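Re: [ENG-882] Designed sequences occasionally contain unexpected residues at chain ends

Forwarding the minimal case from QA. Structure tokens:
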């Protein structure tokens, strides 16, 4: 019997999706809410935590009650658990495994690289049609050199300063190479410095810097630029990519796409607005990058030999002193991406840092 749009059965497998790490990832949480608000999806949330905590009366909690959302604990190393979470979904959004990463390179390799192989294998076994991976713009950053409006033609670095970025690049390559095989279409999105409610990486990193002896210093001239991306915009890009893959746009399948707010900002102005919003003094004393790198040498040695993080390390210095801006023309052209929330730094950052991080 024919049904109209409003009476569509939300249990229809063709409109069921799985969001891997949709609880621990800020982008994942935003994507889950966007999918539920659209009314088009039944959303399976799969994460490493044993249960899902959410506020009463929220869109997610109401969706859990009526069956439009569900939660399952997974381990990407366990294909049987992945199969249980994914089977019946037409699309899988993979948000990354940042919540479970370790200091051990080997353990991270198992989680990121072998885990991605498991996800791809299970997607093929379960006849998933689309796999969209939330990668990172850092997969093309060698940790040393500036990037000025880099686009998708940039190769992966032959050597990474940060081993974690190397593993992320390997995971991304696996996703892209899997496209077109066994009916699975894939693509990878590369957000630059995602931030927003629930952020456990960028803003905590800045706050820890502000609390340390380095909080009053600017590394280098302070003129370096970076792209920063609000999490809701990254979530929106995932939904745009899914629609593009549905339309069988061959220029999207098997391709990476950079995603930003389209407005690069001075890194240290971004940092200053956050630390000021949290009640810290903005950094004002400039230090030469070479001097700080010299100071960081023993800390790098300790980390390399013992795996112990002490003080400031060279990877952090380059991250704060290098320019890293990206060209989003491909995302705009091929998946119709435009930011849904503009980056009005002076207002958005102050509001968010005060209300969501304190």
């Amino acid at each position: 019997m024919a049904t109209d749009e409003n009476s569509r059965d939300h249990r229809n497998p063709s409109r069921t999706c799985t969001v891997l790490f949709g609880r621990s990832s800020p982008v994942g949480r935003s994507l889950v809410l966007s999918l539920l608000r659209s009314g088009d999806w039944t959303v399976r949330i799969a994460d490493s935590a044993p249960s899902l905590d959410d506020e009463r009366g929220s869109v997610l909690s109401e969706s859990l009650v009526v069956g439009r959302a569900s939660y399952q604990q997974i381990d990407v190393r366990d294909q049987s658990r992945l199969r249980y979470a994914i089977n019946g979904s037409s699309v899988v959004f993979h948000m990354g495994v940042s919540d479970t990463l370790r200091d051990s390179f080997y353990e991270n390799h198992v989680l990121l690289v072998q885990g991605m192989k498991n996800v791809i294998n299970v997607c093929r076994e379960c006849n998933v049609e689309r796999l969209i991976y939330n990668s990172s713009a850092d997969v093309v950053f060698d940790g040393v050199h500036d990037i000025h409006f880099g686009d998708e033609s940039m190769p992966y670095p032959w050597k990474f300063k940060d081993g974690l970025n190397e593993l992320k690049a390997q995971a991304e390559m696996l996703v892209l190479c899997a496209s077109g095989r066994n009916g699975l279409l894939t693509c990878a999105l590369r957000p630059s410095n995602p931030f927003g409610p629930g952020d456990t990486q960028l803003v905590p990193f800045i706050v820890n810097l502000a609390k340390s002896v380095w909080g009053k210093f600017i590394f280098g001239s302070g003129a370096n630029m970076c792209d920063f991306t609000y999490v809701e915009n990254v979530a929106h890009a995932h939904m745009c990519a899914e629609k593009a893959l549905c339309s069988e746009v061959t220029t999207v399948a098997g391709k990476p796409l950079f995603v930003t707010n389209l407005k690069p900002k001075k890194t240290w102005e971004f940092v200053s607005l956050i630390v000021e919003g949290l009640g810290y003094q903005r950094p004002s004393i400039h230090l030469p990058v070479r001097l700080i790198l010299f100071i960081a040498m023993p800390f790098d040695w300790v980390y390399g030999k013992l795996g112990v993080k002490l003080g400031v390390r060279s990877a952090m210095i380059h991250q704060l002193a290098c320019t890293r801006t990206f060209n989003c023309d491909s995302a705009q052209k091929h998946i119709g991406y435009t930011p849904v929330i503009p980056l009005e730094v002076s207002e958005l950052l102050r509001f968010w840092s005060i209300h969501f991080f304190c």
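QA comment: On inspection the terminal residues look reasonable. The CA atoms of residues 37 and 316 lie 38 Å apart. Proposing we downgrade this to a documentation issue.
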